[in-house]
Amino acid sequence: MKIVKLQLNGFKSFAEKTSFTMHSGVTCIVGPNGSGKSNVVDAFRWVLGEQSAKTLRGDKMEEVIFNGTSDTAPKGMAEVTLSLSDIKGNETADNSSDKVSDNGTGKAHGDSSSGADIVEVTRRLYRSGESEYYINKAKARLKDVRELFLDTGLEVKSYSILEQGRISEILNAKPVERRSLIEEVAGVMKYKVRKSEAITKLQRASLNLERVNDIVSEVKRSVGSLERQAKKAERYKSLGAQLSSIELRIARRDYDALSSACKALDLLHADYTGRLGELTAEVAHNEELKTKHGAGLKDKKQVLDKTLHAISEMERQLSGTEKDMAVKDSTLNNILSHIQRLSAQQTEYLQQQYETIDRMEELSEVESELHREIEVIEAEYQSDKDKIEGIEKAFASIETEVRDKNRDFYQLSEQISNVRNEVSTLQTHLGALQQRQESSGSFFRGAQQTLDKHDSDIEATRKDIVDSQEGLALATERRQLLTTQLKQSDLSIERLRQGIAARRESIASDKARLKSLQEITASTLHEKDFGGTINIVATLSATLEVPQQYEIAVESALSDKVLAVILGTEGELKGAVAFIKQRAWDRTALISLDLYPSSDPSHKGMETEEKEQGLADGDVRALDVIKVDDAYRTVVGQLLGGVVIVCDIDRALELFRGNGGGHYVTLDGDVLGRDGVLTAGKGTDVLRHLRNIRELTEGLDISAEALAGLERDLASAISERDWLRTEQQEVQEQLASLDKEVSIFNLNLKKLTEERDRLAKKMHYMEVEARQTEQEVQSVLAAIKEKGQHQDILSARKDETAVYLQGLRDSLSSHKALIETTRTSLTDKKVALTTKKERLKSVQKEASSLRRAAEAIADKLSAIAQESGTLTSRRQEIANDIEVGAVDLQRISQDVALLRQQAAQEKGVIDVEGNTLAEIDRTLTKLRHDNDLLKEQLNETDVQRMQHNLRMENIRTSVSNTYDKDILEVEPQPLQEGEEDIVGELRRKIAEMGAVNMASIEEYEELKRRYDFLLAQQEDLLKSIAELEQAIAKINSTTRKMLTESFYELNIKFNETFQEFFGGGKAELTLTDPSNILESGIEIAVQPPGKKLQNINLLSGGEKSLSALSLIFAGFLIKPTPMCILDEADAALDESNTRRFSDTLKTPLSFFFSSTAWR
User: GO cellular component terms (predicted)?
Assistant: First the structure.
């Protein structure tokens, strides 16, 4: 992966679209403070998915949007785009291009291929707070962006982005916080992320499993209880369905029978009504005939009366007294006959009147009786009504008490059931305890045998361990000896390496000093090559070897001549003079050996010595302390002959005065010449420099020989160490084998001992448990006894309650029967009352009709009585006139005979009419009797219809209230044999079941489905946890291996990089917990050249920065990143360290560097 370009638009101080093209090597941004260099680094971090505003040096994320200036309007959006190339080709990317996809195709969002030449990652932030991510201009998630850069070294928290102050944080960080560096180098970030996700999933799965286990345990307890309730409800439902089916069929059968009976009664009622109509019509017709015949008969009687009257008149006129008497006698007879007829008629009417009066009296009595009966029935009806209300109240009270007692009964039953369950549980527990006692006895018998066998096995294993430990002790001693020797060898090697390093540093330092001295000496001596034409034999200062304490004095004595150039011949001398003049050089001292004879200068020296009297111990002759080659002794003798070196100027003046002259020089360089001139001041120190050069040269030769010897010793020590390591490895392998053997024996011993101890402990526990079991058995027996007594008490209470409840139920049944009887009586009374009232209406109607008939009869009787009175008076007159009318009787005898014949005919007609009228009366009487019978039958039919309708309505109401359906909706079905007989048994079974929870069926089915689902979830969670633990173990194994290899490689590379930065020294990384590299922190130990190993906090700021950069660059060299971003990483470095730092940047890596330093 390579970073091609970074584009900023509206991000922080970049108001307009700004692009930064990344070149191979170093891309540097240099500018003053506040120019926005760090904003570019923040842009890198922001586009990679940074979510912390504080990391971006702000309080809110919206602050990264350009906020405007006095001349520029604020932006509404910040956008940063990072262009990448060579996604596939970068090995460090770890196929991160495949991770860009989240659509299952392995292709990048918005691109046809994950290996496209350019991949653009864009992040936008609006002032509304909405954030967007794009990969190749297609919307993506933050997770996609992070996965794209995972293990590429370009993550948000990676060390490839070093902002201001981040370098010092590396050294100041805690050891655990530094481990992220080695994780980046090892490339385990993706495994770490996967492990973190797996651990999170594992924790969630574990929590879910705990919750599921709790729920399963809770649901499992509920399932059993609900299952029993559901089975009870199913049985209740089955019995109820069976009972309802039978009762509904019985009700429909009874309803249909009553309906059929009602239909038959309706037909009979219609027939009776029709016949009653016919009878009523016939009665009316006969009454009309009777009225008609009665009126005709009256008319005929009137005609007959007129005829008889005419006969009477004619008889009176017929004869005198006799005739009149005869007529009158005849008339009298007729009147008597008529009176008889009237009397007969009156008798008949009186009989009818009597009958009517009797009937009226009878009807009056019937009416009175009916009134009394109605009053009695109404009173009884009201009494029954009040009674039934009282009974119903008592029934409701008893029913309430029955419910209360039922509840008490069920509670007692439930308590008894609970006690029984507790007793059953205790008995089960007792059985388990007794079984445990039996198994404990068996266990003790077998455990003792096993214990004895374990003791023998332990003794044998201990003997094996002793034998193995003896061999192990010998091998351990050998290993300790080798380890000691190896440590000594390592210390020796380390000392040799330190000595070599110190020697090399010393040689380097001496060489540098030698070079510096040579340069200084060269500039001081003004060495000239004279163009190669003059042969320079030597310089005077180079030929002298002066003790250090006399260097200043000798140099001062020689003065400028100390810098003189010695030439071979006089010709060369002249040539050198000409050359100097030609080049216009400064003045230069030249000495030619030809000018000094090769005679021994000691003679002159001796002469000088003789002249110099009074020398003390501290006074020395210059020639006595100088060593010089024989070739130059004459020259030196000429230059320093007679020069005496004294301690100070006072001594020089003293000798000068004492000897009357001389050449003296003090140790501080003050010169008192023969001419008495005193010269003072600082010299050129050329002799000191030359002495230092000689010493350094000799020291370098010695150091080179010593270095070669140290290197030979180091090679020998390394060879010896390798041999010791080989020996140690062999001993270690032997020790490992023995240790493994001892471990196996120890493990076996531990297992045997643990097994023995466990068995002994278990036996002890079993003994304790046996005693506890015995105590528990006694406790359980006592509890069973106590529960039994409690159960007996509850049973007694239950029986008492049952007896009382049965009494209440009997009372309830009697009240219910009484209510039914009273209701039936009430219904019967209501029907009887209705019948009586109908009968009363009928009687009153008949009485009214009879009153009208009686009034008519009375009228007729009154007429007959009046007529009878008239006839009686007439008969008396006729009787009185018989004697007078006897004569007239003769005269009209013929007319009388005719009239009598006519009267007889008329009387015959009247008789016929009377018989007809009597027949009509008899017919009417019969018809009225039949009419009364039909009315009674009709009333009885109405009562039966009303009773049937009431029963049908009761059946309909009962079915509707009980089963919530209309009786007509019940399908009529025949009853099987014996079904009607089991209704009582079914009701008894249902009543014995007590309270039933019908909702338990659905609750059980729902809970069972939930329980099955939870079991499946539990199995899935267990499987997921096992898979996650396996994945975590695999990740740990892979990560541990990668971290171990990377830590070893990083440690070596860190030391090399540190030495390159510091020109030597030592750096090392150590693990705080080597046994657990997955969690271990990292300690940093550094030793700059010339300093002892010390705490990193005691280093200077520049040393800390270089140390941190050494560690970071070591990681980059092991695992290069697409780019390293450094923000003022050189802030704490001086010029020379900055130069080294910049030289290190000249690597194949890409660096994006910002700095305020123009250097």
Answer: chromosome; cytoplasm
Phi, psi (rounded to 5 degrees) for 4 = -95, -45
- Six-digit token string for 335: 């009147």
Instruction: Please state, in angstroms and rounded to a whole number, the distance separating the CA atoms of residues 230 and 1061.
Output: 85
On whether the pTM is more than 0.85, the answer is: no
Query: What are the chain's domains?
Result: 1-88+116-156 (3.40.50.300), 536-562+564-603+613-683 (3.30.70.1620)
The response to whether 35 counts as a known ligand-binding position is: yes
One DSSP character per residue, 144-201 reads: HHHHHTTTTT-STTSTTEE-TTHHHHHHHS-HHHHHHHHHHHHT-HHHHHHHHHHHHH
Q: Residue 57 region, left (φ>0) first, then alpha (ψ -120 to 50), else beta? A: left
Distance, CA of 377 to chain centre: 78
Q: Is 2 annotated as a binding residue?
A: no
Residue 37 marked ligand-binding:
yes
67 is annotated as contributing to ligand binding: no
CA dist., res. 833 & res. 819, Å (int)? 20
38 belongs to an annotated ligand binding site: yes
34 annotated as ligand-binding: yes
418 marked ligand binding residue: no
Q: In one letter, which amino acid is 948?
A: H
Identity (one letter) of the amino acid at 131?
A: S
H-run or E-run covering 1089: none
Q: How far apart are CA 543 and CA 638, in angstroms?
A: 14
How many whole angstroms separate alpha carbon 917 and alpha carbon 290?
A: 6
Q: How many H helices and E strands in the chain?
A: 21, 22
Q: Give burial (CB, 10 Å; 0-12/13-18/19+) of 234.
A: middle
Taking the CA atoms of residue 820, residue 826, residue 831 and residue 835 in that order, the dihedral angle to the nearest 10 degrees is: 150
pLDDT tens-place string over residues 493-505 = 878 877 887 888 7
Chain segment 696-735, per-residue pLDDT in tens: 888 888 888 888 888 888 888 888 888 887 887 788 777 7
